[in-house]
Amino acid sequence: MTYDHALDAALNRLHDEGRYRTFIDIERRRGHYPHAVWTRPDGSEKEITVWCGNDYLGMGQHPQVLAAMHEALEATGAGSGGTRNISGTTVYHKRLEAELADLHRKEAALIFTSAYVANDATLSTLPRIFPGLIIYSDALNHASMIEGIRRNGGARRIFRHNDLAHLRELLAADDPAAPKMIAFESIYSMDGDFGPIKAICDLADEFNALTYIDEVHAVGMYGPRGAGVAERDGQMARIDIVNGTLAKAYGVFGGYIAASAKMVDAVRSYAPGFIFTTSLPPAIAAGAAVSVNVLKTAQHLRDAQQTNARILKMRLKGLGMPIIDNGTHIVPVHVGDPIHCKMLSDMLLETYGIYVQPINFPTVPRGTERLRFTPSPVHDSRQIDHLVRAMDALWGHCALNRAELSA
Ligand SMILES: *Cc1c(COP(=O)(O)O)cnc(C)c1O
Questions:
Q1: Alpha helices in 151-258 (DSSP H)
Q2: CB count, 10 Å around CB of 181?
Q3: Considering only CA atoms, which residue is closest to atom 5 of ligand 1?
Q4: In the chain, how long is the greatest CA-to-CA distance?
Q5: What's the confidence (pLDDT) of residue 231?
Q6: If the chain, 407 residues long, is cut into consecutive pieces of 10 residues, what is the mean pLDDT of each piece?
C-alpha cells in the first residue's frame, strides 16, 4: 500500500506542477506525410498535419528506404538474434557503419540502439579509456550527454551555453597535463541555435583537448553530403568523436558515433551500453544505410527544408510573432507561459488539425514556454498558409503580445 502512495505522490507532483505528460495518439500515413490521423481519448478520429515531427526530410516514407527494409526483412526475418559479439553482427550492420564512416570522413563508425544510448554509453565509458579525463560540457547539452557524463565517475565542468570565454577560463584552470574533452552540440534543438564549432576546436587545439560533438539535429540536413554543420563549416576533420541519429532526418531508427579506428575500437570494447544489448534489427540497419546514402546527394531536400523554414519564419514574423530565429531549420515561437502554450496547442489541434506539441518546463526554462515548428520539404505552401492563418487567429484570441524577440 505504501508503494501505491509513493506512486500517487510522484505522479501528483507532476500534475501539481502542470508537468504531467499526456501523449497525443497519432498514426502517420505512408506516402501522405506530414498527414496523420489523430485518435482522441474518446476513440474518434481526426485528420491532422504534423508540425513538430523530427522526420525532418520525410525520409521515413522514402520509397528506396522502405524497399531496402522490406528486402532485408524478407531475407533475414525480424530481429538480429543477438548482441554484436554473439551472433548479432550482419552484413547490414557492417554496411551501415561503412556508410557512416564515409559520411563523416572518419576511419570507423559504431552503431547503437539510439543516439541517446550512443551519447550515454560513449561518454560514460571514456574515463575508463582516458584515466583522469575532464569533460567540459555545454550547459544546454542534451539529457543523454548529461547522463553519460554524470555517471562516468570522472571530472566534469559545465560551461555557460556557447560561452567561449567561460570555457577558456575552465580549461585554463585545470592541470595542463590532464586529459580533456569538450562535449557540445552543433545545433541546440530548443532555440535552434548553432554551437561555435570552429572556435571550440581552436580552444581544443590550444589546450590539447579532444572534441565530442552531437550533430543529431544536423545530420542529413547540413553540409554538402549531409554530414552536419561541421562539414558545412569545414571543421569535420577537427572533431574527434561525432554523434548522430538515424531516427530524425534519416527517418529510421538508431544512433551512432564516428571517429578514428582506434577510438571506435576502444568504445566498442569497453562500453556496456554497446556490448550488452541486442544489435539493431537488420531491416532497420538496411533502411538507415540507404537513407544515409540517398541524403549524401539529395541537396534539393536540404534546400527545400531551409526554404520552407525561411518562409514560415518570415510569415510569422510579418504578423509580429516572437520567433526565435537563429538561422536553423527549427522555428520556435515564444509563448512565455505554460497555460497559453498548452491552450494554443490544444486549439491548433482540435480546431485546425495542426499538431504541435507545447514545450514546457523542464525541457525549457520557466517563462520561455514555446511552440516549436519543424517545417520540412513535405509541408506544402497550402499547409504553411493554413498554419500561419491559424496562428494569427489564435494569437489574437489569446490576446498574446506581438512584440519582437531578439534572437
Ligand atoms: C533526439 C536527440 C538525441 C537522441 O536521439 P535518439 O536517436 O532519438 O535517441 C540525442 N541528442 C540530441 C541533441 C537530441 O535532440
A1: 164-173, 197-206, 229-232
A2: 23
A3: 115
A4: 64
A5: 98
A6: 93 86 92 96 96 97 98 98 97 98 98 98 97 97 97 94 98 98 97 97 98 98 98 98 98 98 98 98 98 98 98 96 94 92 95 95 90 97 97 87 57
Separation between Cα atoms, residue 348 and residue 358, nearest integer Å: 11
CA distance 356 to 325: 18
248 tagged catalytic: yes
Residue 135 and residue 267 in contact, taking contact as beta carbons nearer than 8 Å: no
Is the Cβ atom of 116 under 6 angstroms away from ligand 1?
A: yes
CA of 54 to the centre of ligand 1 (A): 10
Mutate to test the pocket of ligand 1, among 144, 145, 214 (most ligand atoms within 8 A of CB): 144
Whole-number Å distance, alpha carbon 116 to ligand 1 midpoint, is 5
Tracing cell 551512432 back to the chain, one arrives at 256
Taking CA 28 as the corner, what is the angle to CA 26 and CA 31, rounded to the nearest 5 degrees? 165
Strand 210-214 with 180-185, pairing: parallel
Rounded Cα–Cα distance for residues 295 and 252 (Å): 13
Tell me the one-letter amino acid at 192. G
Q: Which of 106, 180, 248, 313 is catalytic?
A: 248
**Residue 316 host element (H or E):** helix 299-318
Residue for cell digits 523542464? 362
Q: Is the pTM of this model over 0.85?
A: yes
Distance, CA of 177 to CA of 207 (rounded, Å)? 9
CA distances from 362 to 17, 181, 186, 251, 306 (A): 10, 27, 21, 26, 29
